[in-house]
Amino acid sequence: MSETITADREAALISSVPKSLYIDGQWREAHSGARLEVQDPSTGKVLCEVADAGEQDGWDALHAAQRAQSDFAAMPPRQRADILMRAFELMHERKDDLALLMTLEMGKPLAEAYGEVTYAAEFFRHFAEEATRISGNYQTAPAGNARFLVTKQPVGPSILITPWNFPLAMGTRKIGPAVAAGCTSVLKPSELTPLSMLALAQILQDAGLPAGVVNIVVTSNAGGTMEPLIRSGIARKLSFTGSTAVGKKLLEQCADHVLRTSMELGGNAALVVFEDADLDKAVEGALLAKMRNSGEACTAANRLFVQRSVAKDFADRLAQRMAEFQVGRGVDDDVKVGPLINAKQRDKVQELVEDAVRSGAEVLLGGEPIAGEGYFYPPTVLFDIPEGARVRSEEIFGPVAPVTPFDTEEEAVAAVNSTEYGLSNYVFTNDLTRALRVAEAVESGMVGINQGVVSNPAAPFGGVKESGLGREGGDIGIDEFLETKYIGIAM
């Protein structure tokens, strides 16, 4: 990480990355010959072009997965585990390239990119271990006249759709359990950040994954390419990470053939600080919960509720710490905040800030886009957000921390739950009873107590309400790719 990144180093890395579709174990161009541009969000300039798939390419990928399914499901679990472990090791061997590649196409600071490579690789190691632990059950029927044999089998070919904000980890979090369970797949990464997933496909190929097991289809026409595949009934599973609006459309498409679904959708996480909390630790936790990935995370703390007696002190401390965060290209030394993904996202963040200020919020830090090339937005702290402000109800996806005072625990819980989302929340207090009481009362799939990061490959990740269905990670993540079969045996 101490290496100085030169323009020649960047160019050499981009040149070395596959830029074709990966279908049936082969690198190939799109049938139409179309290509799409991949942009560096820190400059707005084009990094390279990659193959741009159409519907026929999607069909080729799905049919390849369909052909490979039977043999791959029959592969011994230990062999599937060994492939995942080899991929885990290769990711660590190539961490320098993977981290830099991610920074170039997505913008996040290089230190965070290294962290994501480690996090992403852990999904392969975790599910390599889970592959050999798939179990069933055998029991006597209550009447004694039969035996119940319960077993688990791969759900079948799966469609995996990943977002741009964690381009490597969101892929391994889906590929890991699919491979461990014995499922083949077609994965569509975001067209904004396809290079990380193409590099991962190369790693899987080098690790010995059989042809057709994982197929990577990059496309600028997601609906036209993927909807026919989803509606075909050939795939039996869809795992999607992205917005709630898109997730709802995909659920409708899955209804045609009743596909199994995992949906990790939008979030509007709240961070609650009670007056008895250690404010220094609460500020540090808030920095992690808010500023990870420059706020472009579904688990990011979008709403910070702080008990009134300490609210202004907390907000001032947070603003002081966030003011120390250097903004710039992710490859530059000491940068803590990279660009937002594109101009559209930067403009949305600014709209939310302007709306909050018009509504009466006080700006303690930032509040205006940074001029110049790239899509930069400064760390911003807003204080005392009126209830009608959009920032109270809409996902920000940027480095903006809106702090709102509250008086009672009941008021805080009601504010936390006043959203259609329910992915993650965070609670800071030194009262263990209160911590557990609030954690049980808030409506979310995950709660962090006195910590600003809850994601862990060994723990279940997912939400409630309009934040999604199913769980990824943990010892139940593999179940999303398994069907339970009961066999009754007469005695």
Chain-wise SSE layout:
Blueprint: H1 7-16, E1 21-23, E2 26-28, E3 35-40, E4 45-51, H2 55-74, H3 77-93, H4 95-106, H5 110-131, E5 137-140, E6 146-154, E7 158-161, H6 169-181, E8 185-188, H7 195-206, E9 214-216, H8 222-232, E10 237-241, H9 244-254, E11 260-264, E12 269-273, H10 279-291, E13 301-307, H11 308-322, E14 326-327, E15 335-337, H12 343-359, E16 362-365, E17 380-383, E18 400-406, H13 409-416, E19 424-428, H14 432-441, E20 446-449, E21 468-469, E22 482-490
Helix pairs in contact: 2-8, 3-5, 3-6, 3-7, 4-5, 5-6, 10-11
CATH topology of the largest domain: Aldehyde Dehydrogenase, Chain A, domain 1
Radius of gyration from the alpha-carbon trace, in angstroms: 23 Å
Query: How would you describe the shape?
Result: globular
Query: Given the structure, what is the number of helices?
Result: 14
Alpha-beta content class? alpha/beta
- Relative strand content: 15-25%
Give the name of the CATH architecture of the largest domain. Answer: 3-Layer(aba) Sandwich
Strand order of the largest sheet: 16-17-18-13-12-19-20
| Secondary structure: helix percent | 25-40%
